Write the structure tokens for this entry.
Amino acid sequence: MTTTSPASAGPSGPSGPLAFVHRRRRGAELFLLVLALMVGIGAYAAVGVGVEESVPADLVGYGGWLAALIITCHVVVRLVAPYADPVLLPVVAALNGLGLAVIHRIDLDQGSAFASRQLTWMSVGVGLFIATLLLLRDHRVLTRFTYTSGLGAIVLLLTPMMPLIGNEVRGARIWIQLGPFSLQPGEVAKVLLVVAFAGYLVQHRDALALAGRRVLFVDLPRGRDLGPVLGMWLVSLGILVFQKDLGSSLLFFGLFLVMLYVATERPGWLVVGGALFLGGALAAWRIFGHVQTRVDIWLDPFSHYGAGTDGRGEQPLEALFGMAWGGLIGRGFGDGDPGRVPFAESDFIVAAIGEELGLTGLMAVLVLYGIIVERALRAALISRDGFGKLLAAGLGAVLALQVFVVVGGVTGLIPLTGLTTPFLSYGGSSLVANWVIVALLLRVSDLARRPLPDLSGGADQGSDDDTQVVRVQR
Amino acid sequence: MNKPIRTISVFCLLLFVALLANVTYLQFWRADGLNDDPNNRRALDERFSQQRGAILVGNDPIARSEPVDDRYDYQRTYLKPLLYSHLTGWFNFYNAQPATCEGCQQRVEQTYNELLSGEDDRLFVTRLVDLLSNKESQGGNVQLTIDPAAQQAAYDGLRAVVGPEGEGSVVAIEPRSGKVLAMVSLPTFDPNALASHDLEEVNAAAERLEADDDEPLLNRSIQTTLPPGSTFKIVTAAAAIESGDYEADDLVPGGPSYQLPLTSDDSGLIDNEGRDCGSDRIPFAQAMENSCNTTFARLAVDLGAEAMQEQAEAFGFNQQYFEDLLPQATSRFPEGMNEPQTGQSGIGQFEVAATPLQMAMVVAGIANDGSVMKPYLVDEVQSPEFDQIDATDEEELSEAVSASTADQLTELMVSTVDNGTASPAAIPGIQVAGKTGTAQSGQDDVAPYAWFVSFAPADDPEVAVAVMIQDAPGRARGEIAGGLLGGPIAKAVMEAVINR
């Protein structure tokens, strides 16, 4: 690529465009991490006090382990990505800690043991996070794996359809069963897809952007360039049809559209893609019973709840009742009844938070997600290479879409789909994948904020207007 | 690529704004509606398992929430179930009665539900403190006006008279304030069976009670209107004295029989069932002592339907005035009667019908120098820490008769106890004012209703009592008379109050 990101120019003061140097702010990150740990450990203690009226006996061990994981992350970031965004990791740590506490709360209600397994998964996630940061010193290396990741993603998406290991849970065929482990390969495919899209689009963006004709103020793409769009559309529809997974379908197609738009800068793609999506969704709604059911339940959950009905409205309606019961400030840990909502520890963890921590808690969670998305998009803005921009924007968008789809579904804004809430929900594949996403985002932001190598040399740096600045090509 | 990234940022912002707005709508504006939804077991469960405040009589709770180990944290327990069931009601899972439920029996558990459950606005500060100190929220307490000794005396006395199957009611009022000191209705029931956490057991008990012919769920003190019989002669006497035509020391028309105007046959003939009512004019006191039908029928005819109705309504007939228990029957004094009907109403017959509470108010009004106080059952409401947060104010319902009329009526009623039919209520050393009543039901196979009303001490009344015996199985028809059956019960209640 030959263009330079305008963001790297910074304020063009007397010392030139390259003199703006991001501060590392690792101290700030450490401070915020301590706050995040207070959220996680405090919430865990609050659950114990609220439910069992005593501080949990394993608080020191649990808190110690959580702190060890988080501080290790910090140390690794300090060592190998010193310029990385200082806000991202603390926000993620806070969400993950809160999620653990809420899962623990539901464990106490249901007699299950999801929290300890989630802590194990978090450890695995943190391990992969560290591995990603250590192994991937420059995200552009990933462009080499464009097609490999794409293929991997498609294979992963297909696995739930395979006999023996494919597993249908509550109507959606999105799980695979490997011995004692059940995995949701879609979560991992999500990351691979972003990598594949970013790599593909960064190579083909010119063709996709420049060719085409203008119809009614909208630049429409060339027919032959529609191939990947149509392909992705078909994949999304396939997920919807064969796996009955509304959420993933919407997520992948939305992600693809966003990245296409960012790469080509042409809203025409949004028009085409949006039309395709709407058409597909409408067709799916007309043709497929499970989509109709979802929409019916969404429109009138009350007619699917209670004696004499099919009872399908139970989960969404109990969630609504729970959140209404929580009100503005919530019932407090232990004083609600989140166990009434089936799958409160995974898909419906937002409802449990709304019930026990109230509107206040839910808003805080949403704002934390907003911050993650904002930091991701900010990294995309200031990134100096196209791949990094696409990668960060894609990862940010996929998080935003996922949060919107799942929280919107649980709170009744849109029809319900089965997706995990990033970092909060119980679920190994989701948690691990999201930690890798954070690592990738930190890597992109690290390279974006890192000062450019000083090639002007010598003592006259930045003081001599005549000095020619040589820009590094990236 | 930055322009589309900025556009995407705005798009993501909109997504989050939509989520925040929707969550705010859900948890703030829509929350109340969802919480009131009958499907919302969460809200129901919570209300059912919370620690409600106590209902207190004297210093003792008669209903309280006790911690238990099942899924609902607290069990509502009634400590003297049979004695107070008609006042407390019961608290169970179905008890959050819908607002549309007309005719549901609402007793203190329901009429004071908001306070007992802690949702009342007057408990806002308490709730806030509980919230900040992370304490489990607790409901406020309701203190009843009931005098436990009087209630017990009324229950024991009535129960002894009517037996386990019998039907009757006793109401005692403090004349100067309107406080209900005792309110008993038999047969009674055990609210604990209706408050159980075992919902099947509750349903079975409710069905059994509703199917019972004796109607144990009915609070006869306020829900049953019956002909008051001779006790209504007090009202007739009051109207006579108020009219200015008569005084307690005057002679009134007497005689062994009286043919009602416009009538010629037996149905219009009123006699005195063998009691001595002279031949022409007799002292007012004698007419009262012997409960002379001829006298009071004639007085009523002389006074006219309008004056009689005015006097009855001044005592509270044809209106509802009791707010703590619902629903209640309206005591009737018919409008626009002709002369013979007026004559019959003067002795508490025709379509005159009163609740025991109404008859207690008639005597309480006389005891209180003619001023009828609005009766009330809930004395004060308290915070969970038993601090008073609100008290019921005494309120005059009406000035039924003048003080001098009240004095004369008292005089007549005292002599009725001292020398007449009401003698079973006499208390040694204390002047008691009273009046008996025995009302024919008009049906041969239904025993007459026995009434007794009284107050004491006559010079400084502390308690006014009305006793109504609707059905006393096993008692001979001739034995059923207000004085004989009701007198001792009223006496026991008055003694309990005076000797406390």
